[in-house]
Design goal:
Order of helices and strands: HHHHHHHH
Largest sheet: none
Shape: globular
Oligomer: single chain
Radius of gyration: 15 Å
CATH architecture: Orthogonal Bundle
Number of helices: 8
CATH topology: Globin-like
């Protein structure tokens, strides 16, 4: 997205509202995953405590959205597919992840145009993460 007055690109990180809003998004995502039965298979791929997962998603999203590179500073390149290969990820898990993220964005009242932009980009990554043919 470009600022009409300056002609400069506005980062998705800034459009979302910075670190505080990214943290809210990561937390809401994992709250939904933990509470809603429709995400049970996705939840089963995670450890009993979601605290580490919450932090990693927050750190990753900050950088992915154009903000601080917290994840890279801690762990190096995300290597998302390699890091997720130990888990069976099929279309069901992909779709649950995407639905959970969509609901988290809706619950936070994120602008519809920004939601659409982010969901399109996240879809490409989520689909690429599949490693089983179901």
């Amino acid at each position: 997205m470009t600022d009409a007055a300056s002609g400069q690109e506005i980062l998705a990180f800034d459009l979302l509202g910075g670190e505080a809003r990214v943290r809210e998004l990561a937390d809401r995502f994992y709250d939904l995953m933990d509470l809603e039965p429709e995400f049970a298979e996705l939840r089963a791929l995670h450890p009993p405590s979601l605290e580490g997962s919450r932090d990693k998603l927050f750190w990753f999203l900050c950088g992915w959205l154009g903000g601080p590179s917290h994840y890279i500073e801690r762990f190096g390149h995300p290597r998302l597919r390699a890091r997720h290969l130990p888990f069976e990820i099929g279309t069901r898990e992909r779709d649950q992840w995407m639905r959970c993220m969509a609901l988290a964005m809706q619950d936070l009242g994120i602008d519809d145009a920004l939601q659409m932009r982010l969901m399109q980009a996240l879809w490409q990554t989520a689909d690429w993460m599949r490693n089983v043919p179901r």
